[in-house]
């Protein structure tokens, strides 16, 4: 099993009032990828990190095997969700994958 963790900060121009709706849309759409992307087992979206955190939001996924990380990243359903609900609003991406 592989864990794939991605963290982002919101772009500076994103207003605080916009963030709850954006987080909700991100969470719903990223979680919907389970069952659509081969090898993707679970998706957790962290909307409310502790104040000690360096990033605003995080995605925590589990995949069957290391090769599935690349499959997930290039899968059309993932690309569509990322391009629509995540990438337009975030910056400073950090990623960690481990077995």
UniProtKB/TrEMBL annotation:
Q: Where is the Stress-response A/B barrel domain?
A: 2-98
Q: What superkingdom does the record give? A: Bacteria
Q: Which Gene3D superfamilies match?
A: 3.30.70.100
This protein is called: Stress responsive A/B barrel domain protein
Which species does this protein come from? Blautia hansenii DSM 20583
């Amino acid at each position: 099993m592989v864990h794939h963790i991605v963290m982002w900060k919101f772009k500076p121009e994103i207003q605080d009032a916009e963030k709850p709706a954006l987080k909700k849309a991100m969470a719903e759409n990223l979680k919907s990828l389970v069952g659509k992307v081969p090898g993707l087992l679970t998706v957790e979206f962290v909307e409310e990190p502790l104040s000690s955190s360096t990033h605003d939001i995080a995605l925590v996924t589990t995949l069957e095997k290391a090769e599935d990380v690349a499959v997930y990243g290039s899968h059309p359903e993932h690309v569509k969700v990322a391009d629509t609900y995540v990438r337009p609003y975030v910056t400073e991406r950090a990623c960690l994958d481990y077995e």
